[in-house]
């Protein structure tokens, strides 16, 4: 029968990204297990040394108070304790496998979203390719777990806003930024339910940590003297001036990452903080002015909001690109997204991110010309993507554009209906 051929073809198309995921993730795991070698700096010490040290401390019921490398909300403890679920493996091997399971969960959600929105697999392919490009780092940090929570919250938002709010709150208590995924929630009952559930969940979980653990929120007061991470947008002037011999500060390991320390760095950190505040103000202003809300707008707004805060941050660690890949991939599961071009810019930024870390990290630390060029391109791509994403979100929801964005012009009204009824 003809429909059997259609179903078979659809399944065949679905298995293509799944097969690509299996091959690329096997390579990443083999690298992390030591069977293969990835060029550049070793990405494993964070898990083998730092995460494992936290794990042993957390088992006592206490958070790593006074440990300057601990910079995370209390629910992050669950991620670092999770390898205990696989006691027959070493801590690091268990962590990598659990991160890979979270990676697979994100892919499954993207495939489901793509099927709901007209069998569009662009989002799944972006996730498969983007994480593969980032290399073994993607499975040697816990950000893929946080991304899974954020994507799950967005997936649940349309039909189960309370569930979405709870997932966003749990994500925020793991690494703060997932609270931004609710920025584009529909006004009225959906917003009240999702944000109300988020507030109740956050208060309840926080109270539990305060009652049964020691020092769950100590991290809030232990990062006041942070500098500017050498990979951030605000670090670029220091790299250039250092190369030219016009700035005589230093770059060294500080608060768990390499930062610039020296003259004018505190000023740059304050400018970055001011940029983040302005970004928040813009987001609130967009929310007030927006007139169009839908499932697609929810995805587009989440991507734009997180992208703005990543770009304005004084810390742009390579693993932050995982967040943007997950949210960007979700945007691509709908044909009527306005974020297609910014998402593709993020994919390009992933390539230069892996060239910056781990491949050429020594050159970045020393402010050598090749390292500066790679970093300039990567951060430039993030900046252009940010401006483009915000402009497109504003034009599609808060103003009356004369014409749709270039990469959305081909979407027909039928496509729009498909994307909103999946």
UniProtKB/TrEMBL annotation:
In this chain, the stretch annotated as Disordered covers 398-422
Q: What stretches pass through the bilayer?
A: 125-151, 163-183, 195-215, 267-285, 297-314, 320-338, 345-365, 371-390
Composition bias (Low complexity) maps to 406-415
Keywords of this entry: Cell membrane, Membrane, Transferase, Transmembrane, Transmembrane helix
Where in or outside the cell is it found? Cell membrane
Alphabetized InterPro entries for the sequence: GT87
Extract one GO molecular function annotation from the record.
hexosyltransferase activity
- Record-level GO cellular component terms: plasma membrane
Q: How does it sit in the membrane?
A: Multi-pass membrane protein
Per the record, the similarity remark reads:
Belongs to the glycosyltransferase 87 family.
Its recorded name reads DUF2029 domain-containing protein
Source organism per UniProt: Streptomyces monashensis
